[in-house]
Amino acid sequence: MRQGRSHGRHRLVRGIWRTARRLAAFKTWPPLDHYKRPLFAYGKAIHDNCERRAHFDAGQYVEAWGDAGHRAGYCLYKMGCKGPVAFQNCPNVRWNEGTNWPIGCGHPCLGCSEPAFWDRMTPFYAHLPGIPGYAAGSHIDTIGMAAVVGVGAVFAGHGVIQILKRVGNKPEPIEPKPSKGDPS
Q: CATH class for domain 7-15+22-138?
């Protein structure tokens, strides 16, 4: 590994190379986002490819640096991660010649690839309000209990209906048929 290599230069060179190859092959620019950045590098939120995304969806967050959730790899959103609103290919390309990236080593994304980064993404260690899906799994026990009660009510209702059908449709008692040798 070369000394003094910038974390972004490798990604920048790769992006320029991909753009040049597309221009040479297809004579067109790659699809661009509304900031005129190529979608292959800026088309998905960091959040969409993050290895901690499942913890976000489950409502499992790091509450303090070094806590059990931090050591277990929980979502860094509450610690200031800007991944839900930052668009870059860091999770795929990684930094330092592909060895790792900030979230992979326990630091939140700062959203450095976004326009107006210093104005929109600071303070760095405070979470952004109003992110859809935040705490999506925090009430899972309540939802689970409601589902159990709902299914139980459906089964109870079905049982009551079946009992009422049987009570209302009592069959007529069957009279025994006289046998062939019976004088009656």
A: few secondary structures
Residues 6+ apart with CB under 8 A from 93: 10, 11, 14
Q: Which two tokens stand for residue 71?
A: 């050591």
User: Which pLDDT does position 183 carry in this prediction?
Assistant: 60
What percent of the chain shows pLDDT beyond 70? 82
How far apart are the C-alpha atoms of 133 and 106, rounded to whole Å? 21
Overall average pLDDT of the 166-171 stretch: 72
3-state DSSP assignment of residue 87: strand
Distances (CA, A) of 20 to 90, 92, 114, 177: 20, 20, 23, 96
Q: What is the distance between the terminal CA atoms of the chain, rounded to a whole angstrom?
A: 110
For 14-23, the pLDDT digits (tens) are 777 878 888 8
Instruction: Extract the tokens encoding 26.
Output: 């297809």
H-run or E-run covering 112: none
Domain boundaries, the chain: 7-15+22-138, 139-169
Cβ neighbourhood burial of 56 (10 Å; 0-12, 13-18, 19+): buried
